Amino acid sequence: MLSNLLNEVEKEYYNLLNECDCEDELNEEELEESYLILAESDCFEEIEAPLIVEAEYRGKKVKLNKPMRGDVKKYKVYVKNDKGNIVKVNFGDPNMRIRRDDPERRKNFRARHKCDTATDKTTPRYWSCKFWSSKNVSDMVS
């Protein structure tokens, strides 16, 4: 059921691309995220489904908002900033393990980095905090 809904979101994205004939003309809000509400029996659950959009960074095609193993730091991610430019965000210490499965370590890390207020996707803090959430890190990295 979830895969069918994600396919519908992807189709809608490509319909938007075909309507304006150019990815740059789309409103950033239309591309950045899509929210789905799934109905399962009597309860509703909101699931955040970010659209992976391909863009160009220094002549190379990259996927936006998809963390991957880094070259300078442990991880890197390409994001679109406020001006509409694609920027690379490097984050993480390559010599340290992410020990987020220990509840005490996770709590201390998230408090130390003020993860509750990290909302800017163009900062390393946002992505580090995202990795220290309850989601499995290997599911986030490509």
Question: Describe it for me?
Answer:
It contains 5 helices and 7 strands. It folds into 2 domains: 1-51, no CATH class; 52-142, no CATH class. The longest helix has 19 residues, at 2-20. The model is unreliable at 21-47 (pLDDT under 50). 32% of the residues lie in helices and 27% in strands. The strands form 3 sheets. Strands 5-6-7 form a 3-stranded antiparallel sheet, covered by helices on one side. It has a two-stranded antiparallel ribbon with strand order 1-2. Strands 3-4 form a two-stranded antiparallel sheet. It is α+β, with helices and mostly antiparallel strands and 142 residues long.
Helix run count? 5
> What percent of residues adopt helix (DSSP H or I)?
25-40%
Q: Strand-residue fraction?
A: 25-35%
Main beta sheet, described? 3 strands, antiparallel
| Morphology | globular
Briefly characterize the structure.
The chain is of the alpha+beta class. It is built from five helices and seven strands, in the order ααβββββββααα.
Question: Any key phrases for this structure?
Answer:
single chain; 142 residues; alpha+beta; two-stranded antiparallel ribbon; 7 strands; globular
Structural topology:
Blueprint: H1 2-20, H2 28-32, E1 33-40, E2 43-50, E3 54-57, E4 60-63, E5 68-69, E6 75-80, E7 86-91, H3 103-112, H4 124-131, H5 137-140
